[in-house]
From TrEMBL:
Reactions catalysed according to its record: ATP + protein L-histidine = ADP + protein N-phospho-L-histidine
Residue ranges occupied by any HAMP domain in the UniProt entry: 192-244
One GO MF term attached to the UniProt entry: phosphorelay sensor kinase activity
Protein name, per record: histidine kinase
Pfam (any one): HATPase_c
Record key words, sorted: ATP-binding, Cell membrane, Coiled coil, Kinase, Membrane, Nucleotide-binding, Phosphoprotein, Transferase, Transmembrane, Transmembrane helix, Two-component regulatory system
The organism of origin for this protein: Anaerostipes hadrus
Keyword Kinase attributed: yes
Lineage: Bacteria, Bacillati, Bacillota, Clostridia, Lachnospirales
Residues in coiled coil: 232-263
One term under GO cellular component: plasma membrane
InterPro entries in alphabetical order: HAMP_dom (IPR003660), HATPase_C_sf (IPR036890), HATPase_dom (IPR003594), His_kinase_dom (IPR005467), HisK_dim/P_dom (IPR003661), HisK_dim/P_sf (IPR036097), HssS/ArlS-like (IPR050398)
Length: 494
């Protein structure tokens, strides 16, 4: 029943109800004890007290002169009825007079219990009994002997004891009821100090369940609630840290999954592009080789042409394979960047001189006039970047046009720019230039044997170096650029 009563109640109400139940139980127990044991306790106490009054009376009769006032004082002090008689049975003292109701009733009680009284007097010199009489009711009586062969009877009614026990029980009940009411009100009001921290903890736990870890529980006290609040705050911090780590790990896992998907797509795309790019040269090689095998040509000039075609297509395939291998090594981190200090001017000058021979028929002018400049980078990888930029410029420069290589300072880096005169790149194609196998003008690319891989190698190389790169349509043509870390203190700013 108690569980049912407390179920679905607030902590304040539960604490108040528990206090009421405890106090009520204690008070009822007190009343029960009063009703069952207080009378017995009072009786034992009165018997002890009546013995003391007997000893006081004995001391009075041990004096040379016995005064009535002395006995009166004892009777008044203890509020007892006292009766004293001499050896002949004559009443020498009575607190209520010889003709009182006590006089007759006591002698009747004594006569009725004479044997019992005699046995007690023989053992201890006096007899104490609890007797019930119609005229006197229930009373505690003592009979003993005094010096000079006197007999004393001391009596006190039980009615006062019973009344005291009853009144004590009633008083306890009334006071208990007041205490229950006052205690319940005080507990309900004071319990707020205990329930407020619990409510704060419940609020914090609820917010934590919604992944909000900003709320903190006040921990002003050093008791159990304070330590619990501190533990909740610590738990909140650890949960926030753990969830943060889990989110980070989840993001990394998601990236890995996306990367794997991307790699798979790149692999499929790669195979598709490679098969497409190799299909034409393989078909040409196969066709011309079969022609030679079948001896369909009689003249040596035609046979030589067939052999030249086969050789050219084989070279294109070889260049494509080499570029693919280079790109694969860079993209997958197999080709480690070896940082070294070198003179980039000397490297580019050698490459420019080689390019001049290749564009003589086009009457293209290549301009390069930069001072000695040192940079930090992987020399062989940067050489591949410059080579791809120059190759791209040679393939797209207009006849009689200009190719120009120049430097400028870009922050802490040196920006190398390769410009060629010619048509601008369509704006929608600029961002696609770095995509593998992408060709803006497929017919022209096929004409010079481009594979669409060179700029992808540039992109992978610069990402490996962590440097910027790009292309822009400028006045008169197109300009490609890339950055490398400068090893010199001075250079012209861009």
């Amino acid at each position: 029943m108690r569980k049912k009563l407390l179920k679905n109640r607030s902590v304040r109400v539960k604490m108040t109800l528990m206090l009421i139940i405890i106090m009520t139980s204690v008070i009822l127990l007190s009343v029960l004890i009063n009703l069952t044991m207080l009378k017995t306790y009072y009786t034992v106490k009165e018997k002890k007290t009546i013995k003391e009054s007997y000893y006081q009376t004995q001391k009075v009769f041990q004096k040379d002169t016995v005064r009535k006032n002395d006995v009166d004082e004892i009777a008044k002090t203890y509020n007892y009825r006292v009766l004293i008689s001499d050896g002949s049975g004559t009443i020498v003292y009575s607190s209520e007079g010889e003709k009182s109701l006590m006089y007759k009733s006591l002698w009747n009680i004594l006569n009725e219990n004479l044997d019992k009284i005699s046995n007690q007097i023989k053992k201890q010199g006096y007899a104490v009994m609890t007797n019930t009489n119609k005229s006197m009711g229930t009373s505690i009586n003592l009979m003993g002997y005094l010096d000079g062969d006197y007999t004393v009877i001391i009596s006190t009614p039980m009615e006062s004891i019973q009344t005291s026990a009853r009144l004590s029980g009633q008083f306890t009940m009334y006071v208990g009821l007041i205490l229950i009411i006052c205690g319940a009100v005080a507990m309900y009001l004071y319990s707020r100090q205990f329930t407020r921290p619990i409510e704060d903890m419940a609020k914090a736990a609820n917010q934590m369940s919604h992944l909000d870890f900003d709320v903190k529980v006040p921990t002003g006290s050093d008791d159990e609630l304070g330590r619990l609040g501190a533990s909740i705050n610590e738990l909140s911090s650890k949960l926030e840290f753990t969830i943060s780590e889990l989110k980070t790990a989840n993001n990394e896992l998601q990236k890995d999954i996306e990367q794997k998907v991307q790699i798979d797509e790149m692999r499929k795309e790669f195979l598709s592009h490679v098969s497409h790019e190799l299909k034409t040269p393989i078909a040409l090689i196969q066709g011309y080789s079969e022609g030679l095998k079948d001896n369909i040509l009689d003249d040596e000039e035609s046979k030589e042409f067939y052999c030249d075609v086969i050789a050219d297509e084989a070279k294109k395939m070889n260049r494509m394979v080499q570029k693919l291998l280079t790109l694969n090594q860079i993209e997958f981190g197999n080709n480690q960047v070896n940082m070294e200090r070198f003179d980039i001017t000397e490297m580019i000058r050698n490459m420019v001189e080689s390019s001049k021979i290749l564009v003589e028929k086009q009457e293209v002018k290549i301009i390069f006039d930069e001072p000695e400049t040192h940079v930090w980078a992987d020399e062989f990888m940067i050489e591949e970047v410059v080579n791809n930029y120059l190759s791209n410029a040679r393939n797209h420069v207009a006849d009689g046009g200009i190719i120009k290589v120049s430097y400028c300072r870009h922050g802490n880096d040196v920006r190398i720019k390769v410009f060629n005169t010619g048509d601008h790149i369509p704006q929608e194609d600029i961002d696609k230039l770095w995509v593998k196998f992408y060709k803006v003008d497929k017919a022209r690319t096929r004409e010079y044997g481009g594979s669409g891989i060179g700029l992808s190698i540039v992109e992978a190389t610069m990402k490996a170096h962590g440097k910027d790169y790009g292309v822009a349509n400028v006045e008169g043509g197109v300009e490609f650029y890339f950055d490398v870390e400068s090893a010199d203190s001075e250079s012209v700013q861009c």
